[in-house]
Amino acid sequence: MSLDDLVVRCNIKMGESVHNEAPDGTPIDPKLMRIQRTTNPRPKVPQKELVFGKVFSDHMLEIDWDYKNVRKEGGWHPPVISAYHPLSLSPAASVLHYALECFEGMKAYKDVCGRLRLFRPELNMQRLNSSLARLYMPSVDPDAFIECIKELVRQDRDWVPEGIGYSIYLRPTAISTYPFLGVGATKEIKLFCIMSPVGPYYPEGFNPIKLYADTLNVRAWPGGVGNTKVGGNYGPTIRPQMEATRLGCAQVLWLGEDHTVTEVGAMNVFFFWVNEQGEKELITAPLCRGDVLPGVTRRSILELAGKWREFKVTERAVGMKEVVKAKNEGRLLEAFGAGTAVVVCPIRAILYEEEDVVVIKEGDDVGPLTKRMWDALTDIQYGKFDHPWSVLID
Ligand code: COI
């Protein structure tokens, strides 16, 4: 089998219809939802003290699934919203042994009129379904699951912070609760969603960060699972991340074959440069190899820049050697990361083969395109005007 066949066989690309053979059974039905509000609401943390992902709201959503011979019909149980609580799991649950787990990152925003909004939630559902399919887990009905998530946000609306840069981060997650030490398909799943009020991902806010281009460790490869949001993609990045921190860098820039740029620890990565043909170009790694996460922010940036028609917009493999050459020839204009958690994150420099590739010189400002992209995205996310990507919750 050629590598190309393997990529086609193993990878489910975002945007393609996902044929999930895993048995689905009864679909999620938001009308059957039970809501048990907490009798013990917790005090809110002052907005300025919020640290990304450390504080959780009062309620969580849970939807259990089981295979048809575990329960008569099989399928998704009625959704439940209840007080945020620890989960009780068998120590044999296969999530704990074989990382049968995937998750999403989404945000709910409070707009200038106090209304709650989601940003392109259908794309998160599409990616969730491709991650579930890769783990041979059943898919979710996107509309039904979005309905349940909206209800969770409504229940904890007081937990959604106000102001640009603030939001509540949603973490839909599916874990296999099936107690089985054999390496096999799960028969019991818990799908849940917790929420965390957040400010900027980095305490420094919209300040440029330095990356460490790791030439030793690899995050993902063609035919692997780098294009899905499975938890197993993240655990093994911690040690390299610690090395990056030791070297004074905020995140790892993951490289593929021939040191091609793939993505950064918690975000996709873009370069804005004048290419060898003298054209201005915004460029990011392609999804076709299957080693890059199909980020919702990534896609939105490509679509916005495409509509502006002011420069070339390209998805193709870029080698670090090309980045260094562009820098040395004065053609590298800007670099930034993009993701739900960070939105847009300016890159100051990349430490590559013991040399700093400086993008923003000490004392210089964040590049105009990086800033414009942040503004364009947040204007939509916070509902400054009506836009089809911003979905009202109430
Ligand atoms: C997100 O941006 O939503 C992510 O999932 C990144 C995360 C690993 C913090």
From TrEMBL:
Could you say which cofactors this protein requires?
A: pyridoxal 5'-phosphate
Task: Identify the keywords attached in UniProt to this record, alphabetized.
Answer: Amino-acid biosynthesis, Aminotransferase, Branched-chain amino acid biosynthesis, Pyridoxal phosphate, Transferase
Q: Name one GO molecular function term.
A: L-isoleucine-2-oxoglutarate transaminase activity
In terms of InterPro entries, this protein maps to: Aminotrans_IV, Aminotrans_IV_CS, Aminotransferase-like, B_amino_transII, BCAT-like_C, BCAT-like_N, BCAT_family
Q: Which CDD domains match?
A: BCAT_beta_family
Pfam families attached to this UniProt entry: Aminotran_4 (PF01063)
Residues forming coiled coils: none
State which Enzyme Commission number(s) the record gives.
2.6.1.42
Tell me the NCBIfam families matching this sequence.
ilvE_II, PRK13357.1
- Indicate what this protein is called per its UniProt record: Branched-chain-amino-acid aminotransferase
Lineage in the entry?
Answer: Eukaryota, Sar, Stramenopiles, Ochrophyta, Eustigmatophyceae
